[in-house]
Every structure is written in structure tokens, then in C-alpha cells.
Structure of Glutathione-regulated potassium-efflux system protein KefB:
Amino acid sequence: MEHLLIGLVVTIGIATIINVYLKKLDIPTVIGYIVTGFAIAQIFHFADTSKETLAHLAEFGIVFLMFTIGLEFSISQMRSMKKEVFVYGALQVILSGLLFTFLAFTFFDITVKNAIVIGMALSLSSTAIVLKILNENGDIHTGYGRVVLGILLFQDLAVIPMLLMISIFTSTNASVGELLLETVISAAIVFVILFVVGKYFIERFFDWVTSSESEEIFLASVILTVIAASVLAEQFGFSYSLGAFLAGMTIAETKYRYRIEADLVPFRDILLGIFFVTIGMQINLDIVSDFIFTILGLLLAMMLIKALVLFLVMRLFMQNRSAIKSALALMQVGEFALAIFALANSYKIISDQTNQIMIVTIVLSMILTPFILKNIKFLADLFFAEPVGLRERALVSTGYKDHIIICGYGPVGKMLVERFKKNNVLYVILEHDVKLVDEAIASGEENIFLANAAQKSVLEHFDIKKSLAIFSAVNNPHQVRLICENINSFGADINSVVTVKNKSQEESIADLNITHVLNRREAVTDILAKQICAFKKVE
């Protein structure tokens, strides 16, 4: 234990020094932590027990990351992401996994079982790195960010059958049917427990905790919730991170989601740092020197194949630019693949040498990822230049006065435009989705602007103080909150109408100065019709 504590002190010290210098060069802290881990592994020789303890501690970084991601996506929102998770995610994992399996079996002297394990593991990407960078640069709420999140969620779910597959390959007692039945029953129990607790208990529990008026007790109760959900999932054979994600989703339905997220972010980032340190510690210099060309060849082929498969699949569902961004974001192999290889190696499904080569290759792909994500717009421009012709006039305001501002051009936004046109009401539409803006302008809509209403400067630019009203018709709960905060900052005299999906979203903006909050479960159309009659007509 003493050696472990000394190692932790030295690790944190080195990580701090390295990251201070790297940050000045605008290099992500993830790289600093991985470099620290590599340096520590060369300087100190941790005992196996110390490495295992550090790995367990680091795993909670992913746990808290998945929990905070779960806070962003409530159960109702997950229902709206069915396509991203179960269509895009399934296609990516299955097609990539089968292709890698075929290539591994065809070009390397390994058995079919070995090829399947390697192929399916390589289909997984890095949840920890990708979501951390997307959260930092704000891309998690973009169109491609939503797709990436959905695919990563499916990959996390896919880890379960992959681990089960290894058990099937090595089991001499239980039949395949018994193992599958046991997994299905366990999954049902975990989902029922977490969602029942979330619906009938969790908010009352936090109400009771906050009655103590102690920040310390509140934070302790949050950590208890995360760890309890993670342990519950692990006890039934699933990953800690899946349990944490489900716990985050249940809390996302409560009024405490934003407070909890703010409290946990620093704690989460520290633990994630330790996780990336352990990744760096797995780089074996002997393996690198002996198999450098094999590793580089595998790295290049692996990342290009993953990117190509995902791009070809996604371009069937979205514009090429979003498809290439999604492909670039997920072209690495992730931390769960390391866990699968470690388990397969312990069961002698793959050799020690193969395991070490794959570990180094995967870690190198993870090291490249932050640089790819930080320059993803530039890289996307190399393949598909961002269209600007149609949007040139959508970037400049025409100086409206006594107008209605519509935030979002989804179904509700389009309904508003139709009604405003019929009533001859002057309006402007603010939409940050490039594709929607281009389509609207191409169809003859002249009053749509490429702008993000979640930025206060945008609302100032479109003269919110001179407007008759502002409507928020945005689907994303995070964006709704930001827009409402911006509206609130302009004072109480702004006539504002905000549509929400459910009671939870309504409560999340209850503390802000919004004139009308319309739950979409109500007769929104009728309410809007009455509101429109009160607006001034265009002269």
C-alpha cells in the first residue's frame, strides 16, 4: 500500500507538470495522462496487486463519465434516439466486427474463435476519450455528436454479449442456451430495479437529503447512487459503466440533474485522468521495438477500415459531411476492447504475444483520437467542403423590429411558421443545423438564419429586446435550458414561449423567467393559435 501511495503522488505530480506544458501547446490533457502513465511504467515497477488496485480506481472514471452522460439523456430522450442506438450502432458493430473477423482469419494464422474475439473487440471505440472531447468542445449536442453517442451506447451494450461469447467458447459445463437465458433474466432484473427505483424513489430520496441543507451529504448521496447502480449491474454480469449510465438516465427525469452534474464534473475528470494513466502504463517498449512495423500496419489498416465502414453506412442516413465526422470520431479502438483481450488472454483464447501487440496498437489509436477530434472540422473539409452558397444570406440579420423569433425549425417550428404566414406575422427563424437551413432556403424560405440561439450574442444580434415574442421549439433539453437562461438574462419584459416534452423538462426551467411554458402533451396547437391572435400584424 505504501508503494502504491508513493506511486500515486509521483503520478499526479508528473501528470500536473506535463499537462501544464501541453495545455500551453493546446494539446489535450488526455495525451498528458497517457504520457505520464508510460513514463511512470518505465521509472517505477508496480507490483501486480498495485496495478490491479490502480486499474479498479481508474475504472470509476469511466463510471462517472457514463453517469454524467446519462444525466444528459433522459428515458424519454433515449426513446427518441432509437435509430441512433439500435440501427446505426448495430450496423456499425456487426459490419465492422464481421469484416475484422474475416480479415483476421484470412490473413493471420489463427483459429475461427480467435478471429471472432479479435474482430468483435476491434469494432468497439473509446467511450472515455470520445465523449470527454465531445463534451469539452460542445460537439456532443451537434447532429454528428448525437450519432456518435448513440453508436457508443450500443457498443457499451454489445460488450455484454462479447464477454458472454468468451464464456461460451471456454465453458465446459453450461450450455449456450442456459448462458443466454441467464443473461436475459439478469438484464430484465437490472432494468426493472433501476427504473422502478428511479420512478418511485430517487427524487423523494434527494428531497429528503436536501432537507439537511448540507452540500457534503448531498454529494455523498450522489456518489452512493452511482456506485450502488454500478455494483448492481456488475453483480448481474454487466459492466459498471452500463449501471452508471442507467442511473444517470433515471436522475435525468428529476429536478436535480443540473446540480448533480455540476457537482460531479471535477470528481469525474480526476478519476478519468487516472484511467488514462493506466492506459499509458500498458505500452510495452519491447513489443513496440520487436513488432513496430506490424503494429503500425495494423494501426493504419484498423482505423481506415473502421472509418470506411462507418462512413459507407452513415451516408445512407445523413449528409456526407456528418457521416465523415461520425466516421472520424469513432475510427479508434477503445478501452472495452482492452478488457475483452485481457479476458480472452486469461482463457488462452489468444496468445500473450497477440495480446500485447493488440494492446499497443489500441493505445496508439486512442492517443491519435484527441488530435483527430480537435481538428475534425478541418479533416471533414478535406473530404467534403462545408456548403456556403445557400447560407451566405442566412448569416446576416436584416434588422427586424416588432418581429417573432423562432428558435428551431423542427416540426413545431414549421407549424409556427405556417400559422405566422397565414396571420401575416413578421418572424425570423434561428436554426443551427446546417442541413435544415440549406433545405429551407432552397425551398424558398427567406427568413431562416444559420444561428445558435443558445448563445446570448445571437439573441442580441437579432434584437430580442425589439421583438414581440420569442418561441423556443428546440428538442434538445440541454439546448432548451441554455436558451431559457439567455432569455432570462434580458429581463422580465421579454415575452417568451417555450415548448417542453414532459414535466421533468418543465421543472428544469421553472426557476427562470419564462412567460409561457407549454408541455407538448397539452393541446399545443390550440394554445399557440390563441397566442398568435395577440401578436401585431405586419403593416
In short: The longest strand covers residues 427-431. The domain at 392-533 is CATH 3.40.50.720 (Rossmann fold).
